[in-house]
TrEMBL record:
Residues 89-216 form the GST C-terminal domain. Its EC number is 2.5.1.18. Belongs to the GST superfamily. Residues 1-79 form the GST N-terminal domain. This is glutathione transferase. Transmembrane segments: none annotated.
Amino acid sequence: MLTIYGFPISSCTKRVALILHEKLVPFRLVTVGPQDFKSPEHIKRQPFGQIPVLYDDDYHLYESRAIARYINAKHADKGTPNLAPLADDHHGVGKFEMACSIEYSQFAPLVDRLMKEVIFQELRQQPVDEAVRASLKASLEAKFDVYNNILKEQDYLAGDNVSLADLFHLPECDLIVHKFDRDIIESREHVAKWWKNLSDRASWLAVKDGVQSTPSS
């Protein structure tokens, strides 16, 4: 059975667990709390002292998107099919990689700032710079205006079928909806439809409130 070292409510741990559920692959979660990220034991697993880390027998991997791609490739015949195109589908690969790059370069950096400078500050009951809040909101609204235009023409970011590129958004979009300003997503017709289709998936419902180990079949 695969083992994931992570933290149940971490966005990156949820991203990996989400794909494991999509592919119907059982896994064991070993909880590594924030106080242990930089411990010598964990640094041996992940030299940057971050989570999650995957162990598949004697093979191990870190970085959540890399882990997700590995799971999808290794278990291509299980669960949800076609979460990434086959290598000989050149046009499909191009569109898929473009969609993944949108998530990683256009969306993720903004949400990382949002989490660090607004959401986590509020959870710690620390003051938030309102100018930063307003700037991040405006930037996210501008990004999702572009998403809305893309999704006007197709159901998902890489085309008409759900892919890893869409699923990678789920943990952070959930934070935007429930911890920041849901109108950023829900007030845009095509983004709202995309979000509903993603957030209603059984895989997300299984992990959204916290990742747990799954029984082996």
